[in-house]
UniProtKB/TrEMBL annotation:
One of its GO terms (cellular component) is plasma membrane. It holds the Pfam family Glycos_transf_4. One of its GO terms (molecular function) is metal ion binding. Mg(2+) binds at residues 147, 207. The chain crosses the membrane at residues 6-25, 46-64, 98-119, 125-143, 155-173, 179-198, 210-228, 234-252, 284-304, 310-330. Keywords: Cell membrane, Magnesium, Membrane, Metal-binding, Transferase, Transmembrane, Transmembrane helix. It comes from the Bacteria. This is Putative undecaprenyl-phosphate N-acetylglucosaminyl 1-phosphate transferase.
């Protein structure tokens, strides 16, 4: 009941704050203008991340959590939100933005929130001096995965809501009330923001919002899966399947084309789905559905036995391959799996 109250409070505060930040963004020039690689056609306020962070911080402090991990979550989120805001305003170089990400990632590391040990098949592996590097790579991957998926109205917001809900469910089974509570508070803030962000959007997350959300999800995944096993290490990756797929194949696609992996393009998953003829809203809802499949798969995989987890993993890999081939996400016209299924169905009388 207490958690539901926090959800309602964060939702209400966010719902009230967002229109205020829309006006502030327009007044002080925090507006994203259309260009050749962006979908929107009119100037759009991009202080969404700031509104979400304010709502999230107010309710988190109001909840008075006993665990001190809330401090690095809020401090690092504020740092990354500021870096994203500067990037939205002045279009920082990728390396400068990455340095800002490293500064934010340094906050949870300073507080001792790191990936230090995994236990594959009952064998404990301690990363030792490499723990910090592993944590940095993990956090940076999640931050940039969420950042890259933020290409359509409401897309990143909805995908993160689905991911947070899945993490919350798993942490309930772990009796990790703190992580569950933080997830619920942030879900409330995002639900209050989504009506203004869904197509046609009145405000964007901006890099300040997408990177900040990626940071919080990254920290929660480390705290929520502390003392993780080899298999559970992949739960956050599965839960965040859509943004990770998009990021992974964007890197492969750019490598194949011989261009910088940091170069922006219009061939992300959401772009490719739109090229298939889906409308803006249809594309977003379709990706929500794919994200939900991966999120449910992650939860079921957590509850399953090892053989069951392997079966779920194989099904998710099959789904990933079908999505990649259907959308031509990798930049290749080869579709072996789709052609295989087509031949099978063609033989059916």
């Amino acid at each position: 009941m207490h958690t539901f109250l926090l959800l309602c409070i964060s939702f209400a505060i966010s719902l009230i704050l967002v229109p205020i930040f829309i006006r502030l963004a327009k007044k002080f020039g925090f507006v994203d203008y259309p260009n050749y690689r962006k979908v929107h056609t009119v100037p759009m306020p991009y202080l969404g991340g700031v509104a979400i962070l304010v709502s999230f911080t107010i309710v988190t402090l109001f909840s008075q959590p006993a665990e001190m991990e809330y401090k690095p979550i809020i401090i690092g989120a504020a740092i990354l939100c500021f870096v994203g805001l500067v990037d939205d305003k002045y279009d920082l170089k990728p390396m400068v933005k990455f340095i800002g990400q490293l500064v934010a990632i340094g906050v949870p590391i300073y507080y001792g929130i790191i990936i230090d040990t995994i236990t594959p098949f009952g064998i404990e592996i301690n990363f030792g001096v490499l723990s910090v590097l592993v944590t940095v790579i993990w956090m940076a991957a999640i931050i940039n995965a969420i950042n890259l998926i933020d290409g359509l109205d409401g897309l990143a917001t909805g995908v993160v809501i689905i991911a947070l809900a899945s993490i919350a469910v798993i942490t309930i089974f772990q009796s990790n009330i703190f992580v569950m509570m933080i997830c619920i508070i942030l879900i409330g803030s995002l639900l209050g923001f989504l009506p203004y962000n869904f197509h046609p959007a009145k405000i964007f997350l901006g890099d300040n919002g997408s990177m900040m959300l990626g940071y919080i999800v990254g920290v929660l995944s480390i705290i929520g899966f502390k003392n993780i096993t080899f298999i559970s290490l992949f739960f956050p990756i599965i839960i965040l399947g859509v943004p990770f797929i998009d990021m992974f194949f964007a890197v492969i696609r750019r490598f194949r084309e011989g261009v910088s992996v940091m170069r922006a393009d219009k061939n992300h998953l959401h772009h490719r789905i739109r090229h298939l003829g889906f409308s803006h809203r249809e594309s977003v809802v379709l990706i929500y559905f794919i994200a939900l499949l991966f999120a449910i798969g992650g939860v079921v995989m957590y509850l399953a036995t090892v053989p069951g987890a392997i079966i779920i993993g194989a099904m998710l890999l099959l789904t990933t391959n079908l999505v990649v081939e259907a959308t031509n996400l990798i930049g290749s016209n080869k579709r072996p799996l789709l052609n295989f299924f087509k031949k099978i169905f063609d033989r059916i009388p």
